[in-house]
Every structure is written in C-alpha cells, then in structure tokens.
Amino acid sequence: MHTKADKSRRSFLKILPLGVFAGVIASLGGAAFRFLRPRLFAATDAWLDVASVSELTGPQPLTRKIVAEHIAGWAITTEEHNIFVLPAKNHQVLSTICPHEGCEVVWEQGRDRFSCPCHESYFAADGTRISGPSPRGLDPLPMRVQDGKLQVQYVSKEQETRA
Ligand code: FES
Known about the structure:
The protein is an alpha+beta fold. The chain folds into two domains: 37 residues; 115 residues, Rieske [2Fe-2S] iron-sulphur domain (Rieske Iron-sulfur Protein, 3-layer Sandwich), CATH 2.102.10.10. The protein has two helices and eleven strands; from the N terminus they run H-E-E-E-E-E-E-E-E-E-E-E-H. Strand 10 and strand 11 form a beta hairpin. The C terminus is likely disordered. FE2/S2 (inorganic) cluster binds next to loops.
C-alpha cells in the first residue's frame, strides 16, 4: 500500500527531469540570445584619434575627418565624418551636422562664422547659434587628450535619441 507521502514523492520525481530540462533550455536560450541578438546602436563610446594636439593650432576652427563604426542590426559599417576642432577653445570639438535638418555646416573663414547651406542657419566661431531655423548651436562632441592626441567620441543626435 502506498502512502500519500509516497505518491507525492513519485509525482515530484516525475516532474524533476522536466524542471532540469527547462532550466538547461532557458540557460542555453539566454546565452544564444546574448550572442546572436542584433546590436541596435553604434558603439558610441569608442574614442577615435583626431590628430596630435601639437598639429591643432591657430585662432580659426579646423575641419578634421574621423572614421566611426556604425552598427545597425548585424551590419557593421565604417563611415567618415567631418568634425570641427576649436584650438582656441581648449580643443573643443563640434559636430558639423546642422541641428535643424542635418545638412553639413561649413566654416566661412572670411566671415568668421559657420553657415548651413540648406536653410541659412549661421553659427558663431564657438558654435553658438546666430540666426536661422536651427533650434540651437552646433552640438559639442565628447573629447579628451590622451598621450598628446586629441580623441573624440562620435555621437549623433539621432543615436542619442534612440539610446
Ligand atoms: S539643415 Fe541647416 S538650416 Fe536647415
């Protein structure tokens, strides 16, 4: 004759392998997801070399190119971007992307200002907005000096709003 305790122990022993199996599947599934999931955002925390600080001198903003990695889903691409370096302002770095609708801003040396060719927004030499439809000045980019080199993190406002 089976007691009530024997029955419940047998029931437990019947479901025990299922529980172990479910635990193993959950662990494997979690590991596979972490490995295979698409990365949605660019690796914006990478520090990118711009140039030696000793090469970045003078009163005028300088245009430099950097190559940043962009990640969209499983696709990783590299893209070249222009940035502005302000040697006279402790090597502050500004984005060249107009905050209005994303056109590329240029430096007008003779007029001492940045201008956007799309809808005529103008910015002072430190990036502050002068006039036009742009809602703000040019966006500063995170920068640092490491071993005599100016480095920058390339972050677009598009990435910031998605993150
Ligand atoms: S995109 Fe620059 S003013 Fe419109």
